[in-house]
Amino acid sequence: MAAPTEDIVETHDDKHVDLDEALVSVEVAHHQETEEDLVDESYFRLPKWAKFYRGTYFQMIMLGGLSFSGPAMSDAIDGLGGGGLATPYTANASNAASYAMSCAMTLFGGPLINKLGIRWSCIIAALWFPITGASYYVNSKYGTQWFVIFAGALGGIFGGFLYVAESTAMLSYPRPTERGKFVGIWVSMRNSGQVLGGAISLGVNVKTAGTGAVSITTYLIFIVLECFGMPCAFLLSPSSKVRRPDGVPVPLAAPVSWKKEVVLLLKHMKHKRTLLMFFPSFYSFFYGGVYTTYLSLHFSIRARALSSFITPVGSILLCLAFGWIIDNKYMSQRKRAWLGFAFWAVPQAAVLIWTAILYRQFQSHNLTGLDYTLNTGDWFRCFVPYYIIQTTGYACQLYLYWLLGCFSADVKSSARTGGLFRCFETAGQAISHGINSRTSDKRIPLYVNIAVYILMVPTLSLLIKLVPDTPVNHDDIVDESKEESKAAAQVQGAMAHDPSGL
């Protein structure tokens, strides 16, 4: 259904009508109809394969395929600990450059996605997937460190297109009652890529009990898998042709100019919900730099390869269960928001404390090269916190997508929300990997992680308090929109007598 943009709802909440947003309100108001009016009857007359092809399920599968061949392969390489290299510092520098560029890209990702569309944004992103694996191969074979960092930086720009495009789709394509399930499918497909990558890494490196770099053959296999992203991108449908299972198109707002897109983005940035989501988004993947460095410095090659296989398996199972929990229709939306928060935040708090204790022990006992067969006890107690933070980390991201989706929005508004969400998230990742590429005392990044967690808890709690008990009703939004459109019409009438008001 064509819900009004989030920016319009924001205008209503703030009790004032801005000129640019008022004009958009007028445009959207003309598109408001009931769900029955919006059902595309021709969709049901299509062949089964065509309905599936244009349906939201197929779009989620293709987006999952993109994540499988792109971010999942990058994560699988990163999951080897320091990119599988002998030391984690070059990989951390590359990741810091990548996420810094992604942060800059996703900041204005909303307007870009709204103009290019989700499909073309994904095609652009898929062009760069194989270069990531190639850079690690070249570094492992020839010792060319600059290429890893350069590929990371440029890949951050290309990857930014995918980050915002997939965020937009996750927030706007599913129906409110299916959002957890759809995001769970996407997260599971992304992690299935890591499972495959981890299985390959484990198979190639299973006999290497020492420390150092993984086999160079590992990267060649990753390069091949990264090439599968392009077909998935081309198979995506334009948003205007996507249909939900009930035949209703995904919500689209009227097109606006580049100037209006930027103005709406700037206003979106100042909204209370946007400010409150900064620390949760910033925190969500901050652990990445801290714990991949932890894995690289303290575990053997085959232990790191085993981790890259079993960790995403746990993430898939956890996220599928978590998606079912937060889609539970027998609890209010706000209760599910609180339950979902506790689901991942409590274990992560325990892990951060656990890791701080382990680092104190590392000072007195130089624990390196931990292996699941040679020193099983030490390996287990040191690996469990890594396993928990990695698996609950994906549950955290799934939760944040679901939470932001509770504030009903159309595709264009979701692009702004998704762009800023990924901007804040990648800023956290850039800083996390950056500090782990420089400091010699690895307790410092952990303490920074703990500080960010402490700041995240109250801000996310305030954001949860804004979640409505039930999904926003379409008719209620339309009624609000009508009031705003009247005010907007008055503004337009004034402009007709005074064009200089533009």
TrEMBL record:
Gene Ontology cellular-component annotations = membrane
Top-rank taxon of the source lineage equals: Eukaryota
Which GO molecular function terms does the record list? transmembrane transporter activity
Per the record, the major location class is: membrane
Keywords, alphabetical: Membrane, Transmembrane, Transmembrane helix
Its record classes its membrane topology as:
Multi-pass membrane protein
Annotated localization: Membrane
Where in the sequence is the signal peptide annotated? none
* Membrane-spanning residues: 120-138, 144-164, 216-236, 275-294, 306-326, 338-359, 384-404, 446-464
Give the PANTHER family listed for this entry: DUF895 DOMAIN MEMBRANE PROTEIN-RELATED, ET TRANSLATION PRODUCT-RELATED
Q: What is this protein called?
A: Major facilitator superfamily domain-containing protein
Taxonomy, top ranks, is: Eukaryota, Fungi, Dikarya, Basidiomycota, Agaricomycotina
